[in-house]
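ASSEMBLY PREDICTION REQUEST
Request ID: AP-0331
Submitted by: J.K., bench scientist
Number of chains: three
Total residues: 991
Priority: normal
Notes: Please return the full assembly, not individual chains.
Input sequences:
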Amino acid sequence: MTLTDTPSDTVDRPVSSEVPPAAKRQRGRPSWGLWIGVVWLVTLTFMAVFADQLPFIRSTSRVKGAGNFAFGPGAEFWFGSDQLGRDVFARCIYGAQISLRIAVFSILTGLLVGGSLGLAAGYFRGWVDRLVSTVIDVLLAFPALIIALLIVQRTDSLQVSYPDTFGWLSRTWAITFVLALLAIAPLARIVRAQTMSLREREFVLAARSLGASNRRILVREILPNLVPAMTSVLFIGVAVLLVAEGALAFLGYSVKSPTPTWGLLVSESRQRIAEAWWATIMPCVMMFMTVLSFNLIGDRLARRFDIREATL
Amino acid sequence: MRYALQRLGQFAIVFVVVTFIVLVATRIGSEDPVRDLAGGIASESVLAQVEADYPYLDKPLVVQYGYWLTDFVRGDLGRSYALSQSAVEMFQQRLPATFFIGFWAIVLGLAIAVPLGVYSAYRRDGWFDRITSQVSFGLISFPPLVIAIFLMYLIAVRFSFFPVDSDYVAPWDSPIRHFQNFFLPSLALGLGLAAVWSRLLRADMILTLQSDFVMLARAKGMSPRRVLWGHALRASILSLVTSVALQMSGLVGGAVVVEQLFALPGVGDRLVFAIQSNDVLTLQAITAVLVGIVVLVNLGVDLLYGIIDPRIRAARAMR
Amino acid sequence: MTPPLQTELRVAEGALLEVENLVTHFRTPRGLVRAVDGVSLGVERGRALGIVGESGSGKTVLSRSIMGLLPRHGLVREGSVRFAGRDLHDLNPKAMRSVWGREMSMIFQDPMSSLNPLMKVGKQITEPLTVHLGLDGQAAVATAVRLLTDVRIPEPERRLEQYPHELSGGMRQRVMIAIALACGPSMLFADEPTTALDVTVQAQILALLGEQRRDRNMSLILVTHDLGVVAGHTDDIAVMYGGKLVEKAPTKTLFTSMKMPYTEALLRSIPRLDQPSHQRLAAIPGRPPDLVNPPVGCRFAPRCPVAQDRCRQEEPPLRPAESPDHLYACWFPVGSPEHARATQGSQPVSVASPARGVEA
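STATUS: Completed
Returned structure:
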């Protein structure tokens, strides 16, 4: 198949070099979707980081008279109040803190471990590749859910049985560990694929012909070229992990109440969705918007750096 | 053929490794293996029963695994003492529901994704393409969980046609009731899949449609329909097929969540129960079956590559 | 080998294709790309026309534009194309599709990428037979076998069941020719048919095309950058540069009395067996013109050794030479005193024996 480098925007334009490239969207001008994503994330992060200082964010403690979903969304409570009289908006913002922290930390850890594995496999090939690929296959064959539930369960019992050594192992840490673990295999695979294709490029061959050591090539040639693609994968990865955390929280296996995460908020008030839709829908919306933003940015970066859809 | 056996062998290894790890993870460092296998039940009679059924619990883990594996291959998947039920019985009762959720989710996902992907690529940047892109992008950002909730709220609560508390009805018993019970849960998962898959297919189709052989097909005077479906689709379908395999593992998790939400009697809540009560045998059995399914699907997809693309078939035959 | 069906659309003799002032521009962010800027030509039934030019001359766009294969998006297409008396512009897409593959066919440059890699060769040949001619399965297969025999592919029955990657480059190109000839078209466009092939195979394919043309009384338009290819296989040659037609003549006339310095330079740049070895190749300096902002005046002027001031200001029109068949566009053609002065000392182009591919 003859593939043009610049995507033409119509069906079957002749591929001969004589025919000029078709009109394509200007690369320099970001689309409105990207702006939405950036604005949302910046605002959310700002609010989450400075939640304590900002005056319009209440604390998450109960407010008298607001219990039993007394307030719907309005001037008093922006997102309404929940069963116990807490401000849903405040809980959403504080939930952002926790959810985001978990997701970001997990993906970074996963990238560190998985990325190293993938890099080694993709660059050195041979037995290293076979070994790492088998490990990746095994990790991927595990139904993610089972791993997650098992590990959370185990850490729970460890915490209970050995409070001295494992007292710090709160659910937050457990979840972070689980998500990072689950992220390793897909990330390793993506990094491996990227490394393998980079390895064959001319600049690597040039460096090698000049006698550069493997380490030098890895650090000076390959890693810098991985970074752009990886930022895109990172963004999409955060989106995926946020969703995963939500699912775990729904099953009761994420951070424990009263610490809010979005998944927890959704599952808490789900029973009463008919009368008090805001307590469930608003955290849903928050989660959706945030996931969407990460996806938008990640996707834009992917298209910019021209990698295939990162399928996590 | 030889290639197929090779792959089967590789997958068998993965299966063994995974189930071994599960065994180790559940039985390692336990003070009272008999109690563990009994699923936390303390009655004397049960404990005695367990000891009788599994006399090798003090042997090294590798040996234990050997016993487990031979049992498994012979069809004895263990039993749950807590619920006095053999694992095989449990699967017979509960696996169909989970299976059908996953199955219909994939079917729905493909049924939506393929026409959408093909047409979006054909009329690239047209209004159809733009709308579909936005919608599918939005759908990807919806966790299946949230989609399920929305579906439940918007549809099941409003229209009594779809029950809120579902039941398992086999499709051969009553197609209509089967549809009633499974449509929403499968849709919840299927929509997310369709979103991912239609984007994948669109991207591949766009590339394919720029290639020379598509131009030749046009120059032969073939209609757009024939060019799209007869020529271009086959060449663009590989990424999609890969994704089906990759999504299997996540589909399992999704099915469990959706089951809970729609109260369908599937394997999911047995799994959660087993984890909570540390019902080791059930846990091993369920994991083994789920991993087996995922592995088999991966194998199937791998073989499918050879069927779709004769060049791959040729390269494999030469190995 | 007679073509299967004769419909009233097919002209037995006389002008089959008449192109008048064809303009094909593309709207791009950079501007309007004038790929083809007013080209007129005609091809009679059974004759072969060679369209020659460098990459960027517009020759491929011309052939596809004539056939109507270019997508409409961002396209500006003016002028008229009459095929067998009908104006192709009037036809709706469905009618065009019944012309393509049936009355008019095209073969492409790279047979590896032009054949569907996932479809058996047989199916690719029988497809137009069943769709256009309504042949049933058996008849289509029989015809396909006959076609493969015509294009000199051994063991045709076996080939039907094979995939393109199982065949050699030359065989693939023959298959493509078979596909193009399947419904007995009266005109065949060959877009750089030999560029991707080995030299020895090139000659065979060209010979095959010539043979089929004669047997079927089919017109042929051969698009190429290689003058050697057109030398022995065409009746007329049209030279394109910068989107315009700069010289047009019967083949022999072109080689013996070319007018345009560009044509002369093209001929001179062909390396020849009887030249002493290690001689510098006489390449044409400079690059093809920017089709968005073509130079004022003659488009070849920036690179022409003979160029005078007039050339840079006024675009030369297409004028007949000694014989009415021979058209050229140049102020100071070969034979004029300015030309002689400018080319003093350079090797004369001897065209008694062009490099290759000459057949009686």
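REVIEWER COMMENTS: Strands of chain B lie at 79-80, 85-86.
SIGN-OFF: pending second reviewer
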